[in-house]
Amino acid sequence: MLIHHYSGYLSEAGCDEAGRGCLAGPVFAAAVILPIDFRDEFVNDSKQLSEKQRDRLRPIIESSAVAWAVASVDAETIDRINILNASILAMHLAIKQLIKPPDFLIIDGNRFNPFPGIAHQCIVKGDEKFLSIAAASVLAKTHRDEFMKKIHTEYPIYGWSGNKGYPSKKHRDAIAMKGISPYHRKTFRMTGP
Question: Which fold would CATH assign to domain 12-178?
């Protein structure tokens, strides 16, 4: 069972990102403030859920949240500032878009740059422990998957509708054969089976 609040503050936003380990596409991040009485037994770390489960949860989270926002940082910026900084920037952009600023932030992972005026706590595997971070992971992942399916129609050779930009065999083989697209990160390493 995931924990609702970390800080004891009434208004607490959970933040998470999706797409850090990809060869192509932006990194997406979400910030979510859930109402104190929010409960859904199916909300979990997005990596533990099927695509169908994530897609079912997205409208539930978006309609139930006190506030939510999703932001992205493109491949060109990722190459310029590196993927960690781009992930943190995407989180900051999402937090800035919240219609109601939270009193406290809980961040998935162990690295974050302080957001002006709001205290935070980094939590390793926070998406497996706290509801708002898990909800943010679902939104970041579903919004990113939607984007990758859209750009798949421009470059179907890479198979982004299936691999979502991650280094699958099909994706790596297509890069070896055709080279990279404008959506690819030039600083990636082609790792994987």
Answer: Nucleotidyltransferase; domain 5 (3.30.420)
